[in-house]
Amino acid sequence: MTLKVDAIRECLEGVIPGIMATASPDGTPNISYLSQVQFIDGEHIALSYQFFNKTRQNILANPRAMLTVTNPVTAAQYRLTLQFLRTETSGPLFESMKARLAGIASHTGMSGVFRLLGADVFRVVAIERVPGESLPPPTPARNLLAALRAATERLSACSDLDRLLTETLACLDEQFGIGHTMVLMLDAPSARLYTVASRGYEQSGVGSEIAMGQGVIGVAARERTPIRIGHMNSEYAYSMAIRQNTEHSNLAGALETAIPLPGLAESRSQLAVPICVVNRLLGVLYVESPQDLRFTYDDEDALVTLAAQIGTAMHLLQNSADAGDDAPPAEAVPPPMKGAPLLVRYFPENDSVFLGDDYLIKGVAGSIFWNLARDHVERKRTEFTNRELRLDPRIRLPDISDNLEARLILLSRRLAERDACVRIEKTGRGRFRLCVKRPIQLMEEAG
């Protein structure tokens, strides 16, 4: 039986460097070690191009090469016959390899030395097993297909987005054994992602943001490709990315509206997977671990499949919420409110909202809350629908990909975390209630 590359993917994890053999046009051989071999599909791989060295010169002049890779667990070796096809210097493959190379460089103390110049794509002409003894493969800790099946069954039973997010992170923990996870949604107009759910952290970080292109999460979103790193990586650490982003923004030195992104202090393995539907980016599923090389190609495949299901479910549930009743239910008589008024402060320049001096939220979610509070104070309203929010010109929702349901979940969770006397309570498909326990006093601050 002819071996395919996907059958030996564990040899490409970078634990044991591959050995590359090339030859110059006059037949002079050259041997070199490779820091990174990237799986593309069953018949193609990519090698990192970092220096214009002898190997590089040879493959440009003579496109045939031999590569030996080793399974880090069984010590089995394989010899690959390669045909050089092209070099990519941008795009998903390049960005994925760049992120992984940065992780390898950080792990080996070579940060600043390793820099990816290109991804050299090769066709794998043949694979042969190198004769020799090897160890038996260990029994896997879990069956990923079974985990994926169980997760799929649980997620398919979710009837609203809030439940879908909660079940997704619970499945990753209970079925896949991944305890540190989060889901971020895209805010397309600002080209940023905001955390809408997390699990396994001391602080939830719900409402925290990161820009497209920053860190593992931002690069995965921008390139719409999974990014997997097996070693600690300061260049791609999202905590550094968010800090740098805040320092360079107009908010530096202003009122504190940055919510810290959740995350492990010393993350050793990271995997960010875009959540898409019909070629549209909805968000990113992110997992991490304090263990080196925690996530394999098989984990990546499983989470990419899971993210595809999450994307489809998000799309259907969003449409379902939009198809709710047009009119809100009749206003019920609210219970009497007690206590001192709650001061709600609104800053129009970025739609940020404070409860007294306590920051709540900003952006579209901030605009939603401010106008709900206004309607409650001025018109005594408590019952609302998604549809009227979408049509409300005061909120200025984007025309496409507004993720309204996700923004309401974000707002609801922020209110619950602040233990505010105002809550949002779902009352049906596309409907919700503003529950207010104390009088509200509105204050719109000057810009």
Strand content: 25-35%
CATH topology of the largest domain: Beta-Lactamase
Q: What's the mean pLDDT score?
A: 87
Distance separating the two termini: 71 Å
Helix amount, in percent?
A: 25-40%
- The CATH level-2 architecture of the largest domain is identified as 2-Layer Sandwich
Cα gyration radius (Å):
26 Å
How would the global form be characterised? elongated
Q: Could you give the count of β-strands?
A: 20
The number of domains: 3
Q: Given the helix and strand composition, which structural class is it? A: alpha+beta
Please give the order of strands in the largest beta sheet: 2-1-5-6-7-4-3
Pfam families: GAF, PNPOx_N
Protein name: GAF domain-containing protein
Domain GAF: 160-324
Structure description:
- With 447 residues, the protein is α+β, with helices and mostly antiparallel strands.
- It has 3 domains: 5-129, Pnp Oxidase, Chain A (Roll), CATH 2.30.110.10; 144-241 and 253-323, GAF domain (Beta-Lactamase), CATH 3.30.450; 342-444.
- The chain is 30% helix and 29% strand.
- It contains 10 helices and 20 strands.
- The protein has helices at 54-61, 92-107, 144-156, 161-174, 215-223, 238-247, 297-322, 363-379, 386-391, 404-417, and strands at residues 18-23, 29-34, 37-41, 44-49, 64-70, 77-88, 118-129, 180-187, 192-199, 209-211, 227-229, 269-277, 280-289, 342-347, 352-355, 358-361, 383-385, 422-428, 431-436, 440-444.
- Strands 2-1-5-6-7-4-3 form a 7-stranded antiparallel β-sheet. Strands 10-9-8-13-12-11 form a 6-stranded antiparallel β-sheet, sandwiched between helices.
- Strand 15 and strand 16 form a beta hairpin.
- The longest helix has 26 residues, at 297-322.
- The termini are far apart.
- It holds the Pfam family PNPOx_N.
- Residues 160-324 form the GAF domain.
